[in-house]
Amino acid sequence: MYSRHDIVWLTPDGWSEALAQVPAPLRAPVERWRRANWPAVVRRNDANLADGFVCAGIPLPPDRETGIKPRVALRLRLSSIDRRTGAFALARAVDAAPAGWRAALGLLSDLQLRVYGSLAMQAFTGLDYLTPSSDIDVLFAPTDQVALDAGIALLSHVAERLPLDGEVVFPGGAAVAWKEWRDARGSGRKVLAKRIDEVRLVSPDELAAALEA
Q1: Largest CA distance in the chain
Q2: Predicted TM-score of the model (pTM)
Q3: CB–CB of 129/141 below 8 Å?
Q4: Which residue among 72, 88, 157, 210 sits deepest, i.e. has the most Cβ atoms within 10 Å of its Cβ?
Q5: Same domain, 78 and 98
Q6: What pLDDT, in 10s, does the model give residues 56-73?
Q7: Are residues 72 and 175 in the same domain?
Q8: What is the pLDDT of residue 157?
């Protein structure tokens, strides 16, 4: 089962199919992406996606003059995927972060976070993704309620020093913005839970119960 933010490498036939879906103005940078053997990133599936396919995207670097972030949306046959991994480990991305971020990022090492977005792509490709307005998008997957509470507290603490964003991922794959979870817990408000095939409002208690199962 694929999850949002998974990283996938394509077969040669997969690249042929992918390039046929790329708008003409972006074909040259995507062709360079193919030659470098960089991966695509799994995104939420389109509503009308056929069986045997998964949705992914190629997040190209931002245009330094306009700030536009080109995103190439793809529909990939499962058979066109050569291999996949989970999202990029934060520990492997720290060296790509600005020097002023690194000490505070080190405070998060016990959470074994993964990272997506600009920091992950800069670490993976060596291209310039980070800008002064960039966030650090993390994925936090706690194993029980104690770990969840401790992790959210630590993320909140480090967010006083860094532009931390991202999601907490519950068993079964539902992901909620960690700040939204923190602010809604105990309030009775529902939170927006994202899975690869749906987005819906869910009670925090329902998600927390998955940690106890």
Answers
A1: 50
A2: 0.93
A3: no
A4: 88
A5: no
A6: 999 999 887 777 889 999
A7: no
A8: 97
Q: Please classify residue 151 by burial: count the beta carbons closer than 10 Å to its beta carbon, then call 0-12 exposed, 13-18 middle and 19+ buried.
A: buried
Range(s) of the domain holding residue 145? 88-212
Q: Among the options 13, 95, 137, 165, which is catalytic?
A: 137
pLDDT at 134 (0 to 100): 92
On whether residue 59 sits in a domain, the answer given is yes
Write down the H helix ranges in 3-48.
Answer: 12-19, 27-35
* Active-site hit among 63, 95, 135, 197: 135
Do 37 and 19 fall into the same domain?
yes
Asked whether residue 1 is domain-assigned, the answer is: no
Query: What's the pLDDT tens digit per position in 86-145?
Result: 999 999 999 999 999 999 999 999 999 999 999 999 999 999 999 888 999 999 999 999
- Per-residue tokens: 26: 């972006």
Annotated active-site residue 135? The verdict is yes
Sheet with 136-140, edge to edge strand ranges: 88-89, 114-116, 136-140, 164-169, 175-177, 191-194, 199-202
